[in-house]
Design brief:
This protein has 182 residues and is of the alpha+beta class. Helix content is 25%, strand content 36%. A hairpin with a 2-residue loop joins strand 3 and strand 4. The chain is globular, with a radius of gyration of 16 Å.
């Protein structure tokens, strides 16, 4: 990466009253738990020399008609496919809104940064709560958490852009407030 290039990700950082449960699971099973807060990814990590101002303007334009929305996550699922081995917390309410925002953001200047694998799979909004390198660890972790039936509810009021530094730490670069729902 040259000095003008930044590694970024665009996401929702939901606020839940019971977020401690998510943090407990992530601390056990997600190697990035100490680097980035619990999140739902809208634009996957990409490297570019797009300036903060250019990216800000892109987000303002793409999100101008997007209002705040209800988000509900529940049900932990096990994923073991070509993208990797994960535990996901599923999005139940807000899924169509997240898919719409995802599509809007991956247009225009960010279209070239859409990973090829996203064209091979159906984008499924989720929160990653575990990431594994072997199936045995994935299966044990799933057995540990599969009985958790908590609901995680919030109102999404902003979209965030993070810079991912060389230590994989998250530094918030831009926050775009969504218009208020009536």
């Amino acid at each position: 990466m040259n000095s003008n290039t930044k590694k970024r990700c665009i996401m929702i950082f939901p606020r839940f009253d019971n977020i401690n449960l998510i943090n407990e699971i992530r601390n056990k099973y997600d190697p990035l738990a100490n680097n980035v807060r619990p999140h739902v990814t809208l634009v996957f990590p990409f490297e570019s020399s797009i300036s903060t101002e250019e990216l800000y303007n892109h987000l303002i334009e793409r999100l101008k008609n997007v209002s705040s929305f209800h988000l509900n996550l529940q049900d932990i699922i096990k994923v073991d496919d070509t993208t990797g081995m994960y535990l996901f917390l599923s999005v139940k309410d807000g899924i169509d809104k997240i898919k719409d925002i995802h599509t809007k953001l991956y247009s225009g200047m960010l279209e070239e940064y859409k990973p090829a694998w996203l064209n091979e799979v159906n984008f499924m909004p989720h929160m990653t709560i575990g990431n594994f390198t072997n199936r045995s660890d994935l299966n044990k972790a799933y057995e540990d958490v599969c009985s958790i039936r908590d609901d995680f509810d919030t109102l999404v009021e902003k979209i965030s852009v993070e810079i991912i530094d060389e230590n994989e730490d998250s530094i918030i670069e831009i926050e775009i407030p969504l218009s208020k729902t009536i």
